[in-house]
Amino acid sequence: LSLGKTVHRASITSPAHSLVDTGRGAASTKGAGGGGSCGAAKKRALPLSAAATAQWSGAVVAVRYCGTSLRSSSATRLLLSLCAQIAAAYDTPCPSLPEDLVDLAAVFAGLVLSLPSRAHTPLAIFIDGVDQLSD
């Protein structure tokens, strides 16, 4: 399965960095600011919180904004990208990723649950807009 995006290894293997996926590829957490509604304030706070978490705890951080595009509106794509990022960040082979959402959710859970035995680096996942997922 291809995720259809480029993942820069340096951004996911360094605990002090996070990968922000808006459905349009990777973007930096730097430069969040500006005005807007309460939702806009939350979207600015999320990458700042993620960066602070990574810096404070040394965690591998994954940030996802769901529903910002057609590509980011799929729970299947969300889990596929999270599995790939987690496997790369912890230098473990990415498991075979099924296309069925229920099976994929089980693979994701197994991958996350196996992490404590593989590394002492914590994992933090920040997801906004879960209610915007279409499947």
For this entry, give a set of tags.
flat, 43% helix, alpha/beta, 135 residues, 4-stranded mixed beta sheet
Radius of gyration: 14 Å
What global shape is seen?
Answer: flat
Strand order of the largest sheet: 2-1-3-4
Distance between the termini: 18 Å
The ordered string of helix (H) and strand (E) elements is HEEHEHHE
Give the biggest sheet: 4 strands, mixed
The tally of beta strands, per DSSP, is: 4
User: Helical percent range?
Assistant: 40-55%
**What's the tally of helices?**
4
The whole-number mean of residue pLDDT values reads 74
List low-confidence stretches.
1-36
The SS-based structural class is alpha/beta
Strand content bin: 5-15%
List the helices and strands and how they pair.
Layout lengths: L8 H5 L4 E4 L4 E2 L10 H20 L2 E6 L9 H15 L11 H18 L4 E6 L7
Parallel strand pairs: 1-3, 3-4
Antiparallel strand pairs: 1-2
Helix pairs in contact: 3-4
Would you kindly provide a brief summary of this structure?
The chain has 135 residues and is α/β, with parallel strands linked by helices. Helix content is 43%, strand content 13%. It has helices at 9-13, 38-57, 75-89, 101-118, and strands at residues 18-21, 26-27, 60-65, 123-128.
